[in-house]
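Problem statement: downstream parser choked on a complex file, so we are re-checking the raw output for the adenosine-5'-diphosphate run. The parser issue turned out to be on our end (a line-ending mismatch), but while we're here, posting the original submission so the record is complete.
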Amino acid sequence: MQKTMIIFKPDCMEKKLAGTVLDRFERAGFTILGIKMMRLAPELLREHYAHVADMPFYPALERFMSSRPVIVMALEGRDVVARVREMLGPTDATKAPKGTIRGDFGTSSTVNVVHASDSVENGAIEIARFFKPGEIFG
Ligand code: ADP
């Protein structure tokens, strides 16, 4: 069993798509281990997005990600990291195929509905970054 960290990004919240996206994950058989709402502070975002913090688009990404409260969620399942990334589609929502979450609901490379961990190792790091131990069940 693997774990992955999901963020329902501000566009997902604004468009009231959290339930629709969560339904796709539940239908895929994944189990919720932890879920809560939070507003992402710039310090936390700089840590989470350290791999793109020097990119020209980073200031806009930080403004977008802190623009309204989001839902963060830890999911568990067989091969969940790769399967969720497949369900999301590529980063650039304009290039994401229909049927993927970003292809169906996304807007751009920044405004792309959902974050999901890109490796098992990062899944563990990100869950520890966003959740206290007592907030994860199972
Ligand atoms: P992913 O979220 O698909 O794992 P990355 O880790 O490469 O993608 O990037 C993190 C986030 O930074 C993306 O989800 C997106 O919001 C933003 N981003 C990435 N690349 C670009 C880009 N070229 N232009 C604007 N925003 C970007």
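For whoever reads this later: The first helix runs from residue 10 to 14.
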